[in-house]
User: Fold this.
Amino acid sequence: MNANERKKEYTVDLIELKRAYLKAMLCAAAKSDVRYYLEGVYFVGGDNKVLAYSTDGRQLLRWIICEDYEGSDFSYIINRRCIKDAIKTKYNVHLQASTGDLVCAKDGDFRTFRGLIDGKYPDVKRAVAGYVEDIKQEKDKNVLLNGNYLKNLGKIGKIIGKHYKVKDVPVRFYSSKPVDGITNIFTFNGNKNLMYIVTSCRTADTTDEEHHAVLMDEHPIPKPEVQQWLDDGYGAICSVSNKSPDDAKVLANFARTVIVDYDDDGYMDSIGDIWRFVCFIDAVERKPVTA
Assistant:
């Protein structure tokens, strides 16, 4: 196959990706997480758009890659190593829509990197739904951010600043309508195509672990008490909710359910219903699940 034939084969459905933006996406992706699918970047094509998302369940970065896409719908999760290898080539990086491969091209030389992750990515669109473009900003004592997220914000800003050749890239802050908690949104250099979304605690006494802060994650992290009792063969008396962890706590005084199992889809009670959030109360002998 000659160079022209190779070029034609590779460029049929290639979508150009900015290397700096790809590098920034990795800042919000999970590292060494049991939810392995969060360790990659999620690419979605459809409705004339191509978007990319990365999240660890508490922070999310959304990138609008293009808004003139005319190809077939697709969704791919591409792993961290594949993206890093593509960036290191210093070639122009493209996503091949038909395969999910990253194709790097320069002066007729093409390199392909494959790294698809098989998994179901969270419903990240829900996290972006509360975005308001020009919301009036007021002081709110409940807007409390984890300092590590601010550090990551600076890291992303530095990467994007290099891309635009701006030493101190301007960052704009928005505060969205609450969706399960307060959401803080940042954009870089006036470009709304890249949006960094961070959840915050409601009060100074509420930690991220307690609140879960999972605006963009479908599944809560199992409570250690619940997990331990179930692993030991017992049931767990809990208050339950499909709304939020705080809602489950509120119901603890008057609504109690026996949890008998858990998995990635949530917690199952003794009659087979599934719940997203639980608040542990006590342990009991496990009751069988009724059909």
